[in-house]
Amino acid sequence: MAQLARPCSAKFKEDFAYETIKDRLPVILTKVIDAVTRDRKSLVANNGQGLLINDLKGIISRLAEMKHSLQTNKPLKPLTDNTDSTEAWNKYLEEQVKCSDKPPSWFSSTWLYVECFFYRKIHEAMALSEHFKGLDPFGEQKRRSLIESMTSVTSLAYHLEKELNVLSESDDTEATRKVYLQILQVDLWGNKCDLSISGANDNHQTTDPILQLPTLQSGILVDDSAATWQQLVDANRTKPNQVRVDIILDNSGFEFFTDLCLAVFLVDMKLASIVRLHGKSIPWFVSDVTAEDFSWTIDQLGVQSDTHTNLFGFLKRLKENLQSGAITFEVHTFWTLPQDFNEMQTVAPDLYASLQKSDLVYFKGDLNYRKLIGDRKWDPTTRFETAVRDFRPAPFCALRTIKCDVLVGLRNGQMEEVQRVDPNWMKSSAFAVIQYLSG
Ligand SMILES: O=P(O)(O)OC[C@@]1(O)O[C@H](CO)[C@@H](O)[C@@H]1O
Ligand SMILES: [Mn+2]
User: Fold this and answer.
1) What DSSP element (H or E) covers 415?
2) Which of the four, 51, 124, 142, 298, has the lowest number of CB atoms within 10 Å?
3) Residue 1 scores a pLDDT above 60
């Protein structure tokens, strides 16, 4: 068994974790407080009673108390909101208390734990209110980020529709493979549009998603995309018309649109008979997709197609696949717990068993990647399969733009090359990996 690398933590000032906990999360939390304060009038007006003001004041004071706790490195406390994940979170806290010499706190515990706890605490502040239990303080930003990406959305939709109309009439496997690899790269770089790395500042897509690919290509440090194509071909040979693909979603907005493009492509080109999309059950890491974001996105694409007619053909395909059940959306509590994926089989055996029925699972984004490799500071030349440890429910592929300081699977000397090219490599989202592991 390879020696486990140490987890990222803000107790090491050289870790990106330190900058995140010290600087970035307080900024994000301040924006949440401002959003709830600013929206107070519209939130109350929509609900029409002055007493709601006190309810909102309760939320704001809990968030302010959380900010003070974060900035003064107070011990983490059990959650009190009595939701379906409260017990799991409090059990995890108890385990941390048992296995560390001092009470877990923001700057002493692992980065993965405290950053996940940060977003779960924001949800607790809402869940403890009377009338705003499910309030998503990031909802407005996520909606705005899709609307401001509409030029890129419509050009991508039009491009894909044209390709699908030609390919579905031909049985040109090579041409299909080429478009698959192109859409996969579009989906990969869609992950640049993430509101957490941007400190909740605007981060929508402005360039043409297809035309930008050649300039981004050199930033792909590991490219196993050919192996994912082969897995799809092999799965269709052994079980024609029964291939299942899962996409573990990340960010809403433009990235989610690129996920929908990949899903429609796989179904309409008969590379998968079902694509199961997995979202988050609570607002998460600012821009992650919730069930509310999923429904709003489908509705909004409909609204937009009235003016952006290039959307129309793609949207028809998408809606047909949603109605037929070829594309589905679901959530599971596990995705918003603190455990990394090596613990899924123990913590969420039902989810692990479901993923075991998949022929290919795509994990989108940086946080999913961190959870695949345990958010540990592995040597970058460590093999991906070593860092993933025992997690292997099915063949899977990480599609991740790099936004923090954990990375594996590189060649000898490759990390040094990257650092020379861009010392800011862990925050610039200029680099990415497509890393595949067979089942
Ligand atoms: O999972 P995503 O949306 O690609 O990225 C999540 C993220 O923005 O949050 C953390 C930094 O606070 C990092 O893991 C990463 O930068
Ligand atoms: Mn995210």
Assistant:
1) helix 414-421
2) 51
3) no
Contact assessment for residue 389 and residue 374, using Cβ atoms and an 8 Å cutoff: yes
CA distances from 252 to 220, 257, 328, 369, 382 (A): 22, 8, 16, 17, 31
Q: How much distance in Å is there from the Cα of 361 to the middle of ligand 1?
A: 20
Greatest alpha-carbon pair distance for the chain in Å reads 65
Q: Taking the domains of the chain in order of start, what are their residue ranges?
A: 16-127, 139-437
Q: Report d(CA 70, CA 105) in Å as an integer.
A: 8
Angstrom distance (rounded) from CA 140 to CA 142: 6
Give the residue-averaged pLDDT of 63-75. 97
| pLDDT score of 201 | 67
Q: Which atom of ligand 1 is nearest to the CA of 403?
A: 16
Bridge pairing between strands 396-401 and 432-437: antiparallel
Angle subtended at Cα 140 by Cα 138 and Cα 146, rounded to the nearest 5 degrees: 105
Report the candidate in 145, 151, 141 with the shortest Cα–Cα distance to residue 311: 151
pTM of the model: 0.96
What local confidence, expressed as pLDDT, does residue 95 receive? 95
**Closest C-alpha among 438, 368, 428, 433 to residue 407:** 433
* Average confidence score pLDDT of the chain: 93
290 neighbors 282 (Cβ within 8 angstroms):
yes
In angstroms, what is the span from residue 234 Cα to ligand 1's centroid? 33
- Probe target for ligand 1 pocket from 29, 191, 196, with the most ligand atoms within 8 Å of CB: 196
| Spatial distance between the Cα atoms of 368 and 373, rounded to a whole number of angstroms | 9
> What is the CATH code of the structural domain delimited by 16-127?
1.20.930.60
142, 66 contact by CB (below 8 A)? no
The pLDDT of residue 212: 86
Asked if 190 and 205 touch (Cβ cutoff 8 Å), the reply is yes
CATH code of 139-437, in short, is 3.40.50.10880
Write out the DSSP string of 348-414: -HHHHHHHTT-SEEEEESHHHHHHHTTTB---TTS-HHHHHTT--SS-EEEEEE--SS----PPTTH
Residue-wise pLDDT tens digits, 169-219: 898 999 999 999 999 999 999 988 766 666 666 766 667 788 888 999 999
Sorted by sequence, the CB contacts under 8 Å of residue 218 that are 6+ apart come out as: none
- CB distance 21 to 111 below 8 Å: yes
Q: 125: which 2 tokens?
A: 């502040």
Element housing 278 (H / E)? strand 274-279
- Give the ligand with the smallest distance to the CA of 280: 2
